[in-house]
Records
---
Amino acid sequence: DQQVKQNSPSLSVQEGRISILNCDYTNSMFDYFLWYKKYPAEGPTFLISISSIKDKNEDGRFTVFLNKSAKHLSLHIVPSQPGDSAVYFCAAIDSGNTPLVFGKGTRLSVIA
Amino acid sequence: DTGVSQNPRHKITKRGQNVTFRCDPISEHNRLYWYRQTLGQGPEFLTYFQNEAQLEKSRLLSDRFSAERPKGSFSTLEIQRTEQGDSAMYLCASSFRSGAETQYFGPGTRLLVL
């Protein structure tokens, strides 16, 4: 049973436009959520996180929104740049149980 | 560079051989994690340490897998009698326990078992 789901395997967006990546989770004990970006043959790079006590966190071009009632979070990238092309992983953690639980990732392609 | 480092970056081995991977965490981090990632999947948790204590190892994939962190600094992950199904990217991450903790990943070791 997958506790973190990223239902879109891929997404293409034009440069300068908004990219929206979605993530759903099933475990109501998750209280901290993270987004990682991964280039081929490299480890995941931390992008942004959000605690379950918040509904929005912003860092430059990246904003994460959390809707706890819907068990849904999204990552917005504005404006999208070609260098943003990568696989984005959503991850969640129940702080009483340490391991991160990852989704399968969404491959973002930003087209110039 | 003060990030998480892993060695080797790539390893090709023959089935049945033993392999060992090393991870050096960010120096002030007391937690160290091992994950495995296969094609089309997100990273899958294997085990973790707080300082030198291995606090969770039930998710190690079989008894052929073992990990150590003898002095609470670097860690090693060993796979004995490798099988073709062990081919994957092995990722190490570290964090500083402070409630909501962000884990920072190394570049990974890509293992190919022939």
---
Amino acid sequence: AQSVTQLDSQVPVFEEAPVELRCNYSSSVSVYLFWYVQYPNQGLQLLLKYLSGSTLVKGINGFEAEFNKSQTSFHLRKPSVHISDTAEYFCAVSLPTGGFKTIFGAGTRLFVKA
Amino acid sequence: EPEVTQTPSHQVTQMGQEVILRCVPISNHLYFYWYRQILGQKVEFLVSFYNNEISEKSEIFDDQFSVERPDGSNFTLKIRSTKLEDSAMYFCASSYAGTINEQFFGPGTRLTVL
């Protein structure tokens, strides 16, 4: 079975500081990897994805993530955060077979302080 | 830019009543999904649907739930007899055959069961 673990439930950080949100996954088959952001009272917005190719993936809003197959990790990073980045961030994996479902982590609440 | 839409945005119902949540996927997408997010918890897969049949369903998706694509544009989730624990945000998603695993999510329907 596949699972996604987000190692931090909350990450407080000051504005303009760098941030890393950690994600590890477990799967016996190859998966595709995603990060989604959810702003308060809104739906899920895709930040970035890793399907194949370069392990460093760049997304919207200045975020990037690096796929590390040996460590089964897909950590999200941003060099300088803004107040507007305050949101819930979900790491997710999608299976290449069957019903193609997406499995989400529990989420990390990023709180950017002035 | 095409997007997934969902109606209503908020549905309040009495326990035991039937509800139908509606989704309009992106027009050239062929794979459709429902997920739910209980308040404060992670997003959970319910069901995937392709070629007018269920591809995969989770253990949450019991006999009280059903999905249908009644016409060429809508995709619905029906809960026959709602329970208090069905209160959640329900997200519809769709994907294109060429990039099956990249799912586009709608804004969600908040279901409140009283």
